């Protein structure tokens, strides 16, 4: 049986540990190794970083943090800990001229809205861009990865100017959903289901339009054995909320 990718990822907690008296982190890895051995931890990895060590453990965030804080040298502040933030924030920009490419978009945003930023600094603050079609062929929606500082400035503006358009902007959380099994955290090409599942009842063998079941069952929540008496696309879906919370927790919103 293929385990739910969403469960696997959420249980993977990464913590950076550092020693104030060892800024180069030369001995931190060995210290951490000795501290956690024989403790029954489900360690997935332990590696040296430039300033300390990164520990990857299976378990909930609350459980891992609680166990670490029970270790005397951490409780006393001799070793500091912080969770890894490995995702960049994203913003959604609506109403962009569809003929503008990514490079032109970034420069237009800087030139018309952020003239105080140097060109190279602005480029560094912007990551990958994803262009999405809309019903109106003349305009497109763009999803941009940005630094925490730039995200804050963009959202405070509410509208940014690109070419001749005033474009509304929103925070964006990128949710990956499989359109074969409708679960979260993986794409259809990596799905472990042999057949497509109905998005209404969660059973194989038919599509939503052909389903004769009266009440919905969320395949995503059902697989995790939590409340599943709702449409899989319901915005109040517990699995969706948990996935969004996980993404927010792993996103670096710091300026």
UniProtKB/TrEMBL annotation:
What name is this protein filed under?
CCHC-type domain-containing protein
Reading the lineage from the top rank, the first entry is Eukaryota
Which InterPro entries does its entry note? Znf_CCHC (IPR001878), Znf_CCHC_sf (IPR036875)
Q: Which residues form the CCHC-type domain?
A: 177-191, 198-212
The GO terms describing molecular function are: nucleic acid binding; zinc ion binding
Which keywords has UniProt assigned to this entry? Metal-binding, Zinc, Zinc-finger
Q: Report which residue ranges the record marks as coiled coil.
A: none
Provide the species name: Bemisia tabaci
